[in-house]
Amino acid sequence: MIVDFLDVGVEPPSNPHVLGISFSIASRPLTGYRADGVGPPDLFMKPIRLRTQVPLYLRSPSRAHPHFLRSHPPTPFSLPQCRRYSAYAAQESASNPHPSFEDGQPIDRPRTRRWKDEELPSPLVQRSLSSPKLSALHARLSLPSRFPIQTLARALVTPSADPNPQFNNAALETLGSDLLGYYTSEYLLCHYPRIPIAILFAAQSAYVGSTALATIAKEWGVETAAHPGGEVDPGLLQHLKLASGEEVASPEEAWGNRRRTLSSRVLYDDQFGDLHKGVTTPFSNTNFKFPKDVPRETISNAEDHATGAEAEPVGIPVEDAYKSFVRALIGALYLHCGPIATKRFFQAHFLSRRLDVASLFQFRHPQRELAILCGREGFEAPVARLISETGRLSRHPVYVVGVYSGKDKLGEAAGASLMEARVRAAAAALKSWYLYSPLEVTLPSETEHAGEGFKWSPNMVDYGEVFV
Amino acid sequence: MGLQALSAMAKGQNGVGAFILQCKRIDFHYCDYWGSSKGMVSFLKHRLAHFAKEHPSIEINVSPKPNHHPVIKGTFINGRIRAICVKNLEPTQIYQKALILRNASGDKVKRWNKPVRSDNPSVRGIWSPFHGAKVSLLSGKGS
Hints:
The structure holds two protein chains of two kinds.
Chain A lengths: L22 E3 L22 E3 L34 H5 L11 E2 L2 E2 L25 H9 L8 H7 L14 H22 L5 H12 L1 H10 L31 H5 L6 H7 L27 H13 L9 H34 L9 E3 L2 H12 L5 E8 L7 E8 L2 E8 L2 H17 L34
Antiparallel strand pairs in A: 1-2, 3-4, 6-7, 7-8
Helix pairs in contact in A: 4-5, 4-10, 5-6, 6-10, 11-12
Chain B lengths: L2 E3 L17 E8 L7 H9 L1 H7 L4 E6 L6 E6 L4 E5 L5 H13 L40
Parallel strand pairs in B: 2-3
Antiparallel strand pairs in B: 2-4, 4-5
Helix pairs in contact in B: 1-3
């Protein structure tokens, strides 16, 4: 019997949950394939009835071996989320890793045994259905009903708890990280087309950086398990904690004392302008060379993949665990519910947070920078003029100074001295230039699900900031 | 380096965008033997399922606590716990107590003596019709 898109087996007879029970698997249509939830009719899973304890092998064309999976209630997704028996049974016989299979065909019933919960690295999938913490979290976040609770449980398992990529959230986290970066940066760049790159990095970090994501997860009421394992509640965030006194290797050390510039941050670093964690830099190892046409991201992911599955799990800070959960949730939401629901969720939980972008600026020579900017744009050179003052001879004088280019006032500020007011006025003028925001903005991601009446208006692209 | 950026974090405003109910868990403790738990046992039997259905975002735990008065404990997003003793109370009264926990933010009870709390406080205060210049509708000028 061959069924596409489904990879399923029968529980060994020792499990009381399926003894003598007949039920149908996946009689619901496969959802989560398209944004509108409408899949082609041939994507519907075929109902299967399991009546006896005789193993039923279903083959997926994309996989080399059929797997024994623990049976689970019907779930509308195709992610491999079921604890695989054979993977653990195979550890017992190192000489023949797959004794039961030959050329992808089952020749004998695999040697399996019943695994206790505490022997597994992460909770079983079916236990997520009976976790009040998970269903409460699902309801608290107002997730769509199409979003399966099993996926929510998987998003809570970090690679430090379960290194098996079939059961941890590493893949979902990668997708979610890219989506969060994409949505945030397009919002910032389209609404502030003149934003300087350093401020862009800082604003990006303020919305979806490590600390921000950890705070958001805590505000969602996510709790961490004391120690990961198969027996803990699936509604708890599972990660291996750092041992006492253990420190996380800083990526700055790998970089060495080489100077990091804004250009190097744009070229080499992640979406926040920070060094990638756990990545060998091109300079720290003389033998290491990046291939010319392979992007840096690919290399870092490959390294993670190579080391993640086999190596001993390494403890991570709790902030990283929270971060990986939020990212994995976004990735899973995108897969199951599509871009519209994901963007709505992003708007509700991330962009609705308050950030004063103007407070991120720190100028060193605002007057000089303003003069260069005026020269570049063909404005008259800026001149500072005193608008009003009070208490010049008192202990607390206040001067209000405006910076003018010809007859146009570019900025105005108050200060306790003439010099301070002049510098503040120049900074205010620069901020008002850099934080210009167009009235009509169409985000590029809106075109992904554009309706009939959608009208694309091009976004403004600026020359960029001036450098002093 | 002319322009540098300060690190900051966007501040959450619950209810702007998504709203997260701050009560995340309510524990119901009862005793099978003591008469003070009579109303509580009745509540657990007849009202709790309805209460749980009304509030899917609250995790509900029921556990016996022998030889003690019944108590309900709320755990909040900010990590605080608030306990209410419900000895000798009727199921309806216990329901009201559970609603108190649901509605609480988890913060300590504070006295707010300013009329407005704001991220962008007004420099000039709130406009009042009873103060300042009187406007005459006929002349359009302040008197």
